[in-house]
């Protein structure tokens, strides 16, 4: 029964997601509809994110008749939730440090490259408003704004969108695969999670300059990210905490892109090469300081 639900989840999720992903790929690559109606692209992407949750809820509740609480759908605050805010924010700032140490791009405290990118994406009035907001902001204030935005947006609207993924990956799949052991379960989930992104990465999302290589980098990135979210999921006992982690990660992801210039997102983003190294460092520190991945004994 356990393997049956896992197999059903993977078949239903990937078949539905790849169908939607093919539509997104076609519209993005062979039409200009998203240029004129960007809200349509956003709608498709949000629906895509929610496919794992919809499949999970149907399987758990309506096909197999099990309790959602047994799959982490519970709200019980404890110390394990702290990592949902701390880990993703640390990842964003560590990514900047890794990029600077390794010579990935250049330090851009005036956000000049970021503003140049924005200018190609916004109409002149919107761009001037954005430029005025960034002009003259000190680095400490920018860091505080990133933290504040990450916490507020990541805990609310971003977490709601991210729940669509997390109910699948850290809800159903984590519960089913956890008997394999912490590391094997999370690394396998990370691989599945990365491959699930393939159609939208190929369409130009996340790494528009590298639609093919981006699939490989994204998959390595989700493999690196999975133990960190998995640790928060395990310590909190809640998939909601995992959704908040995912939401904060997405909300604060732009910090390295804003501060590092002359490098593609493939290298400077938290899911790019710089972020993968940063997450590897964070995993190493968490293993040493927090005992991440240590299996519980009967005395604990």
Helix-strand blueprint:
Blueprint: H1 2-30, H2 33-36, H3 38-63, H4 82-102, E1 106-107, H5 112-121, H6 124-134, H7 139-155, H8 157-177, H9 182-196, H10 198-202, H11 213-236, H12 239-252, H13 254-259, E2 260-261, H14 265-268, H15 273-290
Antiparallel strand pairs: 1-2
Helix pairs in contact: 1-3, 1-8, 3-8, 4-11, 4-12, 4-15, 5-6, 7-12, 8-9, 8-12, 9-11, 11-12, 11-15
Describe the structure.
- There is one protein chain.
- This protein has 300 residues and is mainly alpha-helical.
- The chain has one domain.
- Helix content is 75%, strand content 1%.
- It contains 15 helices and two strands.
- The protein has helices spanning 2-30, 33-36, 38-63, 82-102, 112-121, 124-134, 139-155, 157-177, 182-196, 198-202, 213-236, 239-252, 254-259, 265-268, 273-290, and strands at 106-107, 260-261.
- A two-stranded antiparallel sheet has the order 1-2.
- Helix 4 (82-102) packs antiparallel against helix 11 (213-236) and helix 9 (182-196) crosses helix 11 (213-236).
Entry keywords:
mainly alpha; two-stranded antiparallel sheet; 15 helices; 1% strand; 300 residues; single chain
Describe the biggest sheet?
A: 2 strands, antiparallel
Share in helix:
over 70%
Round the mean pLDDT to the nearest integer and report it: 92
Output the radius of gyration.
19 Å
Q: Quote the distance from N terminus to C terminus.
A: 29 Å
Strand runs, count: 2
Portion of residues in beta strands equals under 5%
The structural class is: mainly alpha
Number of helices: 15
Q: Helix and strand succession?
A: HHHHEHHHHHHHHHEHH
Overall 3D form: globular
Summed up, the domain count is 1
Strand order of the largest sheet: 1-2
Detail the poorly predicted runs.
Answer: none
């Amino acid at each position: 029964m356990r393997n049956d639900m896992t197999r059903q989840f993977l078949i239903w999720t990937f078949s539905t997601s790849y169908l939607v992903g093919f539509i997104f790929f076609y519209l993005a690559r062979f039409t200009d509809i998203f240029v004129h109606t960007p809200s349509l692209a956003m709608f498709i992407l949000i629906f895509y994110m929610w496919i794992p949750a919809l499949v999970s809820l149907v399987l758990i509740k309506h096909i197999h008749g099990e309790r959602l609480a047994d799959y982490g759908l519970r709200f019980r605050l404890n110390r394990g939730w702290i990592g949902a805010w701390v880990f993703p924010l640390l990842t964003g700032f560590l990514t900047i440090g890794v990029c600077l140490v390794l010579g990935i791009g250049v330090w851009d405290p005036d956000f000049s490259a970021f503003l140049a990118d924005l200018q190609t994406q916004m109409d002149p009035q919107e761009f001037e408003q954005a430029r005025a907001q960034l002009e003259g902001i000190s680095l400490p204030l920018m860091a505080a704004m990133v933290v504040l935005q990450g916490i507020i947006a990541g805990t609310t609207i971003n977490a709601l969108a991210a729940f669509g993924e997390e109910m699948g990956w850290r809800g159903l799949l984590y519960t089913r695969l956890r008997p394999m052991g912490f590391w094997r379960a999370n690394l396998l989930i990370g691989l599945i999670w990365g491959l699930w992104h393939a159609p939208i990465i190929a369409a130009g999302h996340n790494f528009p300059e590298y639609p093919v290589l981006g699939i490989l980098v994204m998959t390595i990135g989700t493999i690196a990210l999975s133990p960190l979210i998995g640790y928060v999921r395990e310590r909190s006992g809640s998939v909601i905490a995992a959704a908040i982690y995912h939401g904060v990660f997405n909300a604060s992801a732009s910090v390295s892109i804003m501060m590092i210039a002359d490098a593609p997102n493939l290298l400077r983003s938290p899911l790019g090469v710089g972020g993968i190294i940063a997450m590897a460092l964070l995993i190493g520190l968490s293993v040493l300081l927090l005992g991440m991945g240590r299996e519980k004994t009967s005395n604990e």
